[in-house]
Amino acid sequence: MTDAPLPRFPRLVDRVLGRLPTLPLDLALRRFITSLADRHPSLFSRLGDQAEKRFLIDPVDVSFGFLLRPDPAMPRLEAIKRDADGTIDAQWDARIAGPLAALVGMVHGALDGDALFFSRDIVIEGDTEAVLGLRNAVDDAELDLAGEVAAMTGPAAGFVAEVIRRAAPVAERLTGVALVRSGGFAP
C-alpha cells in the first residue's frame, strides 16, 4: 500500500446513482448473494455463530451502503440509501466503513485491511470478532467480484465476462476502484 490517498468514487456518478430507486439494485444483489453462496458454500458457513450477525458495509463516498446477513441457509444483501444527514438508518452488529476503493480493494486482495485500519482509511465499529471472521472468510475465498457478477448471469457468463474484461480497465481508471482481482478473473 502506498502513502497516496485512496481515490474517492466520482461525485457526479454517485449523484446519478443516488437518485435511482434501490429496488433494481436490491434484485441484483439478491441474485448476486445467492450465486455467491452457491459458488462458495464455505464462505458463510465457516462464520459459525457470526453468520447470524448483520454487517453494514458502508462505502462513505457513495449514497448508499449494503447490509449483509451472511446466514448460510438464506444469505441477504441489500442496498440502503443514506439519510439527508449522510447516515444509514439500519440496525447492524458490525460496521465496516471507508471509501469504496478501499472496501473493494480489500475483497480483491489489492489492499491490506490491517494497513487500512491502522491508517484510519477504514473504520470498524461494533462486533470486531465478527468482522475478523468475515474478513478471514472473504480472504480465503479469494473472491473476484467481477467474476462473480459474470457467473451469476448463467448461460451469458462468457459474454458478460468478456464485456467486463474489456470495460474494467477504463472503469477502474475513472472510479479508482479495483474492479477485478489482480491476475484476472474467471466466471
Automatic annotation (TrEMBL):
Superkingdom of this protein's organism: Bacteria
Domain SCP2: from-to ranges:
89-138
- What name is this protein filed under? SCP2 domain-containing protein
Recorded source organism is Siculibacillus lacustris
